[in-house]
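Minutes, project huddle
Topic: does the predicted pose make sense with adenosine-5-diphosphoribose bound?
PN asked that the exact inputs be recorded in the minutes so nobody has to dig through chat later. Recorded below.
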Amino acid sequence: MDMQDQAIRRVAEAIMESGSVCVLTGAGISTESGIPDFRSPGTGIWERVDPMEALSTAVLYNNPRKFYSTGFEIIMSMQDARPNRAHHVLARFEKEGLIDAVITQNIDNLHHRAGSEKVLEVHGDTRTGYCIKCGKRVSIRLLADKVGSGQIPPVCEECGGILRPGVVLFGDMLPDCFNEAWDLVKRCDLLLVIGSSLNVGPVNNLASLCRRLMIVNIGVTPYDGLAEIIIRDKAGQVLDSLQRAIEERSAR
Ligand code: APR
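Predicted holo structure (tokens), as shared on screen:
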């Protein structure tokens, strides 16, 4: 059995023996669904777009035309993506009671589409938008239709305020579900990080909160020193192997 197989087996054992398991996912779990991540060398979105120029509150409020031509395109580019096997395995692990929740930094909605139910979207979502003046929530489709018809910035039909997408932009506060995620990770026995460079706070702090940390990620992260096990391989095949290892162990 090679090193990776041993590591997979140890992660499988840790998941099965832990009373509570949380999973933290990042953009790396969705690259196999065709969505580029942000920081992979050569392909990451931030290699060709300045995040502060694309997805920040400063640009949204001071230069909405720029926001709705660059950042909004990134947001809308994920609408038709499909979950990959990593998302489906996590949904199955939840149904089998092996994991308690998925905390995701992703706004691509793929955990929901794969059937996961307890999903904490700590960077918001691309299903909705809202008016910054009256707070009225709208579907992202309505926002996209307004932008598509040239209404930039899109305005609220109730009060005339500016409409914005429900994603967390650089400069935004995190949604309440981050506090829930914090409490969940503090109480859980094992945090499994999948596909995140753990570069962005405060979400990356979750990796230092938990009793046991294991990481599935191609690139290095600042929290590697805290991880009991690191598997530097593609999330899809690692999650497939994890599922098989758990099935084999359960069959004994
Ligand atoms: N399998 C495993 N790991 C992968 C895969 C894959 N198929 N593809 C990419 N990775 C790894 C990369 O090596 C990288 O370390 O996933 C990580 C993705 O890191 P980032 O691109 O930094 O994405 P993420 O950690 O989710 O970024 C956090 O930053 O820009 C903000 O709001 C944005 O939510 C995002 C946050």
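Observations noted during the meeting:
- The chain has two domains: 1-35+82-123+173-252, 36-77+125-167.
- Strands lie at 21-25, 101-104, 119-121, 124-131, 137-139, 163-167, 190-194, 212-216, 229-231.
No decisions taken; revisit at the next huddle.
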